[in-house]
Design goal:
about 240 residues; alpha/beta; 6-stranded antiparallel beta sheet; 5-stranded parallel beta sheet; globular
Length: about 240
Amino acid sequence: MPQLYQARVSEHTLLKGDYHWFVIDLQTPNTLDFKAGQFIMLNVPGIPAKKAYSIASSPANTGQIHLLIDVGPQGDGTLYLQSLKPGDPVSFMAPAGQFVLSDDPNEQKYVLVATGSGVSAVRSMALWLLQTKQFTGPIALHWGMRFVEDIFWEEDFRIMERQFPNFHFDLVLSKAPEGWPLCTGHINDCLNNHYANFDNTGIYMCGNPTMIEGVTTLLNSKNVNPINIHHERFG
């Protein structure tokens, strides 16, 4: 069951464009037990409804949480987060959400798919599987962004590739510049080119509804068992 947490902003960094990075230190309680893929429900002063944000850090890091926020929508939650400075208090309910790794033994490989800040949830999953669970089966993370100017974390994921030979990172741009050497267009098209089949694979998608629908259509066409298709919608 989610419980109320009092915490404090430790770090607030503008990464690129509208993407902001937050490190939040827990105070009361001072530890959070959550599963990779879950989210917090942030209290925004003056707003009755809580705002949901996926946790980007690994569940192994119990004393703080990391958030990746796209402030582009400029809604109540993003405006509040954008205003926060190191030292500011925050409160939220956590953990929440059912978008978590399955314990199905048939999922012997993982395909993690995200667009924009939806990478938060699948980043948490990749960190948990590789660093803590020491999972040695294939893990691929396919991340869709629009413009080359928005790219961040690419080197971080490339470092993970070098550290873990079973991990593959694929950066997809829908508005790629001339000469872009990697995959372009829609993620479902790139996945279709990458995989002949998705046998014994757990597919985890987090991002915009168009991506979710496109990838789900592709998976259905390849007769992937719906029990192995998991998703969380952003936006």
